[in-house]
Amino acid sequence: MTLAQALRRENNNADFLRLIAACAVIWGHAYGLTGSSIQEPVSRMLGFDYSGSLAVKFFFFLSGLLVMNSWINNPSAIRFVCARAFRILPALVLSAAVCLLVLGPFLTELPPRAYFANSWIYWHIIAKPTVGYVLPGALQHNPYTAANGVLWTIPYELTMYALLLGAGLCGLLRQRAVASAALVVIMALFIAQPETVTALGFQYTHEAGLLPAFFAAGALLALHKDQIRINGGLVVGLVLIAWLLKDGPAFRYCFYAAFLMMALWAMTLAPVRRIHLGGDYSYGVYLYGWPVQQALVALFPTLGLAANQWLSITIALIIAAVSWHLIERRCIRLGHRVPDRIVALLSSAIKVRDFEKV
């Protein structure tokens, strides 16, 4: 099928692939968070990446694909902003509140009065939910003291959304040739010089510097969704090319291409489409995975690597399901209704103004 057909809701199960990716983040982080001496298997096999990082790259690729496709289908700035804001921010603020007001007091070595005397935590929940933090008096004996080490990716993604919105408002996305050329340049630039990410106001790390390239790759595919076909032949061809180049420097990027297209193809397969999750739990799993892992390490220092992985995934899934059904799903629905109300209010205001002129 074409990519345009694959992007139709009934023709894919992106929720399941995102959930696998979120679980992979937990799986990969466990090696460092538990202080394990075992090398992460994907890192040992590839030598240049590991499971958690691959999952984040997949998130950015899929996000670029879906968000660009959303803009193409409905180029409304109000709907674009509301859809993104109501999907990301409520669950993010809630997770910060849970970590700072529930998990922190439970794990801290400070008396409750001393813990809650740190007035910055209340402002942080509301104003800085995307910024990493350390729980006062807690996790001090863990290999890592950060309460939630995945938050750094969210400002990157929000920036990608804002840049795409800006390009759309400027009319650049209406010229497919111009937009395609720009996205190819972005991909090449951030792959060759990932330190360019500092121009966006971010601190440079090599893997973080690559993320805009993966977002741009997804957006580029969305622009050409009617011409691209997603099938097993494409995947086999990319895997073959990657294998033939496995001993050279080009292997890394051929591997990424094969990996991402394999994931896209997998989510269109009939057995995968039949898997019913009951909701999109991936975001909740992603937000709560690290805090759960940290809590397990603090409470059960002798807990093994595998136990941390499986328990963390299970607990994060439960919390994510609660977050989805109580908060996220309702906020997404609200995000779909708010633009209509804004448009109605603006229309009423214009009519009143015109009436007053008469």
In summary, what is this structure?
The protein is about 70% helix and about 0% strand. The protein contains 15 helices and no strands.
Comma- or semicolon-separated keywords:
mainly alpha; single chain; 358 residues
Description of the molecule:
The protein is mainly alpha-helical and 358 residues long. The protein has one domain. It is built from 15 helices and no strands. The chain has helices at residues 3-6, 14-33, 41-46, 51-73, 77-107, 112-116, 120-127, 153-169, 176-192, 206-223, 232-244, 251-266, 270-273, 282-299, 305-357. Helix 2 crosses helix 15, helix 5 runs parallel beside helix 14 (282-299) and helix 8 (153-169) packs parallel to helix 10. The radius of gyration is 22 Å and the shape is globular. The termini are far apart.
What's the alpha carbon Rg, rounded to whole Å? 22 Å
Spatial gap, N to C terminus: 56 Å
Number of domains: 1
Beta strand count? 0
Query: Helix count?
Result: 15
Query: Given the C-alpha coordinates, what overall shape results?
Result: globular
Along the chain, the helix and strand elements come as HHHHHHHHHHHHHHH
Helix fraction, binned, reads: over 70%
Low-confidence stretches: 354-358
Itemize the secondary structure elements and their pairings:
Blueprint: H1 3-6, H2 14-33, H3 41-46, H4 51-73, H5 77-107, H6 112-116, H7 120-127, H8 153-169, H9 176-192, H10 206-223, H11 232-244, H12 251-266, H13 270-273, H14 282-299, H15 305-357
Helix pairs in contact: 2-4, 2-14, 2-15, 4-8, 4-10, 5-7, 5-8, 5-14, 5-15, 8-10, 9-10, 11-12, 14-15
